[in-house]
Design brief:
The chain contains eleven helices and 14 strands. It is of the alpha/beta class and about 350 residues long.
């Protein structure tokens, strides 16, 4: 997948692989993932739990455990992130590249006041004085929409609701003015109304600060109106990638279509049943000899079990009119699934 401009992408990930050693042998959690992200754009990474989304994000953030074996290249603004990690560059992550995690409670120190935690980021990375850092922390709490921000500065994480804690984590992530923000399932365990407020806030802040963003979610509906590009992952691999209008206009991969069918629609008749994806996501140890989705795919044919389909450009038109291909739309499937959900090989 590529959204690169003439000046080159802000982030470029090429053939990323992450392998964990286990008692049962090596397990490949991410396998050959590649994408480019241009400055100012949002990439949505979508897939079920275990698809490799969070492992990919942690590889970008240099947060994988020491026993993880990482392959491939990751460059940010022309800098090699793996080389920066080896050099223990402490003022890169958290400054130019930051992350908002799923559970805000585990991201915050339970014995430190909110104001101290935000100010600490500014003091450590930017060298702010205590007074200046506290003033900037107050401004950040106001900017992320926290009511009574001066009062919140002196409170502890357990005194705030889940939605307010997530806003605090977002304030911390934005403290040093990052160029790229990774939001990994940022609305997990929040009610629907709060989820929308958090997602709208992230989108507004991205536009205001001209940041790039990677939005990780299991819900295709979340990325439809908020991401410029979408990458669908399953079994540690990229199943389909495209610009968002293209993906929703003519989905190619059966897994992408299956994800969409699991989302409730407000325009559907009352009591319409959702269409669940049968079976369960594969263990990373089970992936590698055939299409990762083959065991759960209702469009499977015999050829799907004969090796892992490569990620290739999708033909334009149902039958690939005149052999034309869309260079921005890729799919790892030998069966085309049209908008009606029917498959054509």
């Amino acid at each position: 997948m590529s959204t690169a401009s003439a000046a080159g992408p802000l982030l470029s990930v090429q053939d990323l692989g992450v392998t964990f050693g286990t008692a049962d042998g090596p397990v490949r959690a991410v396998d050959g993932v590649s994408f480019d992200l241009t400055e100012g754009r949002t990439l949505g990474i979508v897939g079920e739990s275990g698809s490799g989304k969070s492992v990919t994000a942690k590889a970008l953030m240099n947060l994988l455990p020491s026993y993880a074996e990482v392959e491939g290249s990751i460059t940010f603004g022309g800098r090699d992130l793996r080389a920066l990690a080896a050099a223990r560059e402490r003022h890169f992550w958290g400054v130019e590249l930051t992350m908002v995690f799923q559970d805000p409670m585990t991201s915050l120190n339970p014995v430190k006041r909110i104001g101290e935690q935000i100010a600490e980021c500014l003091r450590v990375h930017l060298g702010r004085s205590r007074k200046v850092a506290t003033a900037e922390a107050l401004d950040l709490l106001e900017r992320v929409g926290i009511p009574e921000p001066r009062k919140r500065l002196r409170q502890y994480p357990h005194e705030l609701s889940g939605g307010l804690r997530q806003r605090v984590v977002i304030a911390m992530a934005l403290a040093c003015g990052p160029r790229l923000l990774i939001a990994d399932e940022p609305t997990t365990a929040l009610d629907v109304t709060v989820q929308k407020h958090i997602l709208d806030l992230l989108d507004d802040l991205r536009r205001e600060r001209a940041m790039s963003m990677i939005l990780i979610t299991h819900d295709l509906g979340v990325v439809k109106g908020r991401a410029d590009d979408v990458m669908v992952m399953y079994g540690g691999r990229t199943m389909e990638s495209a610009e968002t209008p293209t993906l929703f206009g003519r989905m190619h991969h059966p897994y992408t279509r299956a994800l969409l069918e699991t989302i409730p629609r407000i325009d559907a008749p009352a009591h319409t049943r959702l269409v669940p994806i049968p079976g369960r996501p594969p263990s990373p140890a089970e992936v590698g000899r055939s299409c990762p989705f083959a065991a759960r795919c209702r469009h499977r044919i015999d050829d799907c079990l004969d090796g892992v389909p490569p990620l290739v450009p999708v033909p334009v038109g149902a039958a690939g009119a005149e052999g034309a291909e869309d260079a921005s739309h890729h799919s790892a499937c030998i069966v085309s699934v049209g908008s009606d959900g029917r498959g054509d090989s």
